[in-house]
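Look at a sample.

——
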Amino acid sequence: MNGTIYLVIGALLIGTVCYDLIYTTFSPRGAGFVSSTVSTFIWRSFFWMSRLFKTKQVLNGAGIVIVVAVLLTWVLLLWAGNTLVYLSDPEAVINSTSKVPADLAQRIYFTGYNLSTMGNGDYKAGTDAWRIYTAFISFSGLIMITIAITYMVPVLSAVTARRALSIRIAAIGRSPQKMLLNNWNGKDFKNLESHFENLAQAVAEQGQSHLAYPVLHFFHHTDKVAALLPNLAALDESITILLLFVPEEKRPSDQTLVPLRQAITTFLGSLTALFLNPGSVMEPNLDISKLEEAGIPLEKPELHRIEHLNKRRCTLKAMLDYDGWEWNEISDPPFHSSMDLPEML
């Protein structure tokens, strides 16, 4: 009876980890149950420690820890499942010399060895059927582990692209209003067109990368210039101000404005599908005071237009909250004041 239980539980573990690994690595729609559970648990642990020690520096290590933890979880579950399968039959693993059935520790050792190689011969499968199964897990285990490791390569590449995109956005301006003030030519905001037309594709690609590799969301940077989420929130808020308060003829053309706005919408949609609950946060303040002080002609928007964007802006705030940022930090300088002249920051 125990043998049947071991076989069933082992098969379930193997099936679960194989499905989770294949779904996570090949599906364009995110992570499997096991990897997403591990990722969320570790992120919340790091997040709790950052609040406990009152420093966001703790969050910097969360991404790489999660990647390694997910990889180890897959390997350990595969190892545990196959060990249980070998425990289902006393004759499944025997000592090569004495022919004595292996005990628990020896079966764990034998399973681990065969998942990565064909073993070293001190223990072997006891029957022809178990020898075939051993050859199968040696082959499939190597494939699974290779797939898991290969999964990490595009993740790290996407992290680099994410940082580069963040720097490009930060260069436009340090805050939503500063982005607009930096590109006011005295008549309109047409100077923003050159920035916007180059950002739409990069933002859309990041949205799809976050959907395909949800672990990207856990790569936190305390240095704002490399932190995509607060800079992306500032960019979107600047577009919101344009749409609500700036006359249409003074905005960037729809050919550059609309694709970027839609790309950000897609990015937010990928995060909402995986992590975010916008209904749990309060709508942030909409600040245009610096634009008014600069004497830029603005319109007073109708109330229903502002209310129509409440969900979007709550999603932006939820995105920042989940990543350990405060809404007011989207207006903080991204570049260090010691590195350049004030007018360059």
Notes: The first strand starts at residue 93 and ends at 95. The chain has two domains: 2-149, 154-344. The radius of gyration is 27 Å.
